[in-house]
Amino acid sequence: xxxxxxxxxxxxxxxxxxxxxxxxxxxxxxxxxxxxxxxxxxxxxxxxxxxxxxxxxxxxxxxxxxxxxxxxxxxxxxxxxxxxxxxxxxxxxxxxxxxxxxxxxxxxxxxxxxxxxxxxxxxxxxxxxxxxxxxxxxxxxxxxxxxxxxxxxxxxxxxxxxxxxxxxxxxxxxxxxxxxxxxxxxxxxxxxxxxxxxxxxxxxxxxxxxxxxxxxxxxxxxxxxxxxxxxxxxxxxxxxxxxxxxxxxxxxxxxxxxxxxxxxxxxxxxxxxxxxxxxxxxxxxxxxxxxxxxxxxxxxxxxxxxxxxxxxxxxxxxxxxxxxxxxxxxxxxxxxxxxxxxxxxxxxxxxxxxxxxxxxxxxxxxxxxxxxxxxxxxxxxx
Length: 382
What we know:
Elements: H1 2-9, H2 14-47, H3 50-76, H4 91-119, H5 128-155, H6 158-187, H7 192-219, H8 225-236, E1 243-251, E2 257-266, H9 271-289, E3 291-300, H10 305-321, E4 326-333, E5 337-343, H11 352-366, E6 371-377
Parallel strand pairs: 2-3, 5-6
Antiparallel strand pairs: 1-2, 4-5
Helix pairs in contact: 2-3, 2-5, 3-4, 3-6, 3-7, 4-6, 4-7, 5-6, 6-7, 10-11
């Protein structure tokens, strides 16, 4: 079924495909969640079960989530304008955040309802039809979760991945409701309120984790390791450059990737040659990785023996202080000052002042009476 619908919508440009796939996910989710809500609401009222009612309200929140998914993909597809020069793709994260807040609200409401049911337990009317509806809802939710996973992979959507997790979470909650109904049917134990309470806690936790993830996306989270590795591999493939550092990546939505990097080149190159090289790199990143890259040139005096000797000595000095420290942008200024950036990993215990003092003492002993002008880098990916 999913393949049938995908064949209908995956035509046109990548941008229009993303919108159509997102809308398809919203429509299919809306229809299936509305069906689940009505079915669970009916049997919950008939059986007088707070846990089934909690599960029904969870399906209602999923229905609202599907509406927000539809709106989110529609707004995210809007082109850039004068007020939003980087487009509207981040609205997909905003709709995901709204979905997460709704999930938390529903969880809190049924936490209160379930607690009241624990204090004042009442029997539930379990019947064959209740069990059938719960089994069917589990099957529908499994299908729905797989549908969201398939569509999320198709367009690389964090929102649909989160929604798929919520669908599979609903499978677990409905299984718990079904087991509690069966247990009360066979043993007459009044555990409905306790099961509802646990489900409410689970809904709250799930909503909180989703809120955290989407806030992270809106604030600007670190790219995943695979994306960083792909950029690093691409940069290492350019034989014309000497090296690279200070890679920064920021996003304005799932398909809006921007990055900047410092490229080390031979200091004897003229401006035209250097520009041709970095222009080709930026074009390659855009065409093959979908990343808008901006390169900053760092000329390196690789033909100056004295410069190379001092630079190699400095590399040895910082290695002995901490093996994972890295130097870049090294300069010898006015024959009196050594200027460079020092990349400091998060796990290094020494403060910047302590590092400066230790390096300065080592320079005085091994190189000579040079002052240090160090810029400490703590935030770069590479």
